[in-house]
Amino acid sequence: MEQRTAYWRVDPIKPDPRIMARAGLILRQGGLVAFPTETVYGLGANALDGLAVARIFEVKGRPQDNPLIVHVADRETACRLVCRVPAGAGKLMDAFWPGPLTLVLPAAPVVPRQVTAGLDSVGIRMPDHQVALALIAAAGVPVAAPSANLSGRPSPTTAGHVLQDLNGRIEVVLDAGPAGVGLESTVLDLTGDVPVILRPGGITREELEKVIGEVRADPGVDGRPGGEFRPRSPGMKYRHYAPRVPLVLVEGEPERVAARLKELAGIYRSRGLRVGVLATAETAGEYNGSRVVVAGPRQDPAAIASRLFAALRQLDELGVDVILAEGIEPRGLGLAVMNRLRRAAGNRIERV
Ligand code: AMP
Ligand code: MG
């Protein structure tokens, strides 16, 4: 592998075809290219090349049993990776592709087991980003890509985050500015009778139900640890999205959350700890004496989603000893935000 990771800036709307051709060739030859999508930055490898895919697991330190999502630039490629297209899949592709919706479908034998982690299904999506689509088209192969971070860390929403985690371990990072949605795709399992959300993300349950009727949520989607369920999406069982510093999440009515956070901050400070607070705009002024990072207004979960991972990385860099985070209402995109925060908190969650 090269010593340093090449850094290529590209226009987010009209990427230079020569740069995309070079990056596509690197993928086709078995290299790893980090690229922007509308959700977060992805770490791509040729999905049909089991060895290239295995390197993704190696550089991220990703658990071997956590399957990868395959990214495609056209529906025909998606259909070639699947042995049976279940009812409803076409409608969902019409409605949400390109976009932050991953469909879990019965895998065709061409999909290497390194991608599916040995499952008989494969997760596929078409990203809504000109650079991602141009890269996949230039590669001429489907591209397996998890988030381009070290496993367990907050997902990268900028090329800078990618380099913080993976500099020197991958061939190229394409920089097209910050990712828009800021949270990963919704993962929807279509292999059973009723579609099941395995991971909440950029497309909400309400939006899905408008198109295909009843959708269930896997018991793991609210992100609470513990419980008896066996994860159907292997990714759900790992601590994830987490800053290095311990994070305590407080959920409930906004005023009570702020009151409890202030109390906790006082307790920690009296023990000589430096406290960071991940706050909503409405209550950010309440935390004198703590380092405060504002995620966004409670009224606008989409804004919080887009800033969440950058805010967690920022809190890490402030050199605090503990992070106290305000919960928001787990509805719509707020559910995806709370899924990530709960997973980042592990079992340090308080309800007030
Ligand atoms: P990441 O690549 O980090 O965005 O994570 C991908 C997520 O999709 C993980 O939670 C995986 O467990 C999930 N996933 C990918 N493929 C499948 C599949 N075939 N069946 C169930 N979950 C999947
Ligand atoms: Mg990830």
Automatic annotation (TrEMBL):
Domain YrdC-like: 17-203
UniProt xrefs under Pfam families: Sua5_C, Sua5_yciO_yrdC
Transport found in the keyword field: no
Binding-site residues for L-threonine, renumbered to this chain: 39, 71, 125, 145, 185
Protein name: Threonylcarbamoyl-AMP synthase
Compartment(s) where it occurs, according to its Swiss-Prot or TrEMBL record: Cytoplasm
Similarity comment text for this entry: Belongs to the SUA5 family.
Main subcellular location of this protein, as a coarse class: cytoplasm
Domain of life of the native organism: Bacteria
EC number: 2.7.7.87
Job description of the protein: Required for the formation of a threonylcarbamoyl group on adenosine at position 37 (t(6)A37) in tRNAs that read codons beginning with adenine.
Keywords: ATP-binding, Cytoplasm, Nucleotide-binding, Nucleotidyltransferase, Transferase, tRNA processing
GO cellular component: cytoplasm
Catalytic activity reported: L-threonine + hydrogencarbonate + ATP = L-threonylcarbamoyladenylate + diphosphate + H2O
Stored PROSITE patterns: YRDC
Residues that bind ATP: 62, 66, 147, 155, 199, 241
Annotated SUPFAM superfamilies: YrdC/RibB
Residue ranges the record marks as coiled coil: none
GO molecular function term, any single one: tRNA binding
GO biological process: regulation of translational fidelity; tRNA processing
Gene3D superfamilies noted in UniProt: DHBP synthase, Threonylcarbamoyl-AMP synthase, C-terminal domain
